[in-house]
Structure to design on (267 residues):
């Protein structure tokens, strides 16, 4: 894979990983575009009996600094790899949603020896492509009603995007440098689609235990059954869910994820 568009991102602190809890082999959760590590709050208790759970805020998200270099998935994958190496992990489960899934995919391509198992939820590179209009509009949001309308495209049940969710999204965007950082990430996701597809093709030929989870009604990054099947491994299409199946269908996804991690605990 070409290294074009990659840059150096400072971690901002020596160890950006947060250990949530659990026992057993290590598992790192990578959140999606516009989200943060708290997006996994409904999933971590279900998988803690199987794994030791770690998470982080990606650059330009949550509490992380808005230093994203060129914002390409490749540069973000380098940043996550440095965080992993800084903690001294030799092998771990990776689970990523959307942007986080793309980063996990690149890590599995580059560092297959590091990846004990791979769980991708609505990942770029395996579906029909992330909606560029959604990506372009998100960093520019500054109006409550417009933000509500855009964020509700993520889900099947609009009530899941409540006032607190919208306010939090706008508060994060208002932080210095965040809009520019997320614009660069959005542009990087669009221009990096080919690299992510190449990563998916490489991982499809590997022996890494892998699973894809997707909401059947995802309007932001629609699933492609042919690409999912070609990727190989286990897959689950979640009825009545959009781009956030781990939030919209928490119990179902938790059961699937816990079973997969338990089955591959010593892979």
């Amino acid at each position: 894979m070409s290294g074009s568009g990659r840059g150096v991102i400072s971690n901002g602190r020596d160890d950006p990983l947060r250990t949530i809890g659990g026992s057993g082999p290590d598992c790192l959760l990578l959140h999606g575009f516009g989200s943060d590590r708290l997006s996994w709050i409904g999933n971590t208790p279900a998988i803690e009996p199987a794994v030791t759970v770690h998470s982080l805020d990606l650059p330009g998200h949550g509490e992380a600094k808005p230093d994203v270099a060129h914002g390409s998935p490749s540069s973000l994958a380098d940043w996550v790899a440095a965080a992993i190496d800084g903690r001294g992990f030799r092998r771990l489960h990776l689970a990523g949603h959307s942007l986080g899934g793309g980063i996990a995919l690149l890590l599995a391509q580059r560092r297959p020896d590091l990846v004990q198992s791979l769980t991708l939820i609505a990942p770029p590179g395996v579906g029909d492509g992330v909606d560029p209009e959604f990506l372009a509009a998100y960093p520019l949001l500054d109006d409550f009603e417009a933000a509500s309308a855009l964020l509700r495209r993520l889900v099947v049940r609009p009530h899941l995007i409540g006032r607190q969710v919208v306010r939090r999204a706008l508060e994060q965007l208002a932080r210095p440098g965040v809009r520019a950082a997320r614009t660069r990430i959005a542009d990087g996701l669009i221009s990096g689609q080919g690299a992510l597809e190449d990563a998916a093709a490489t991982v499809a030929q590997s022996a890494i235990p892998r699973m894809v989870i997707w909401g059947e009604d995802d309007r932001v990054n629609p699933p492609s059954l042919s690409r999912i099947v070609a990727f190989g491994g286990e897959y689950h299409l979640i009825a009545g869910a959009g781009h956030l199946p781990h939030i919209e269908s928490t119990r179902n996804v938790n059961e699937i994820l816990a079973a997969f991690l338990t089955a591959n605990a010593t892979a």
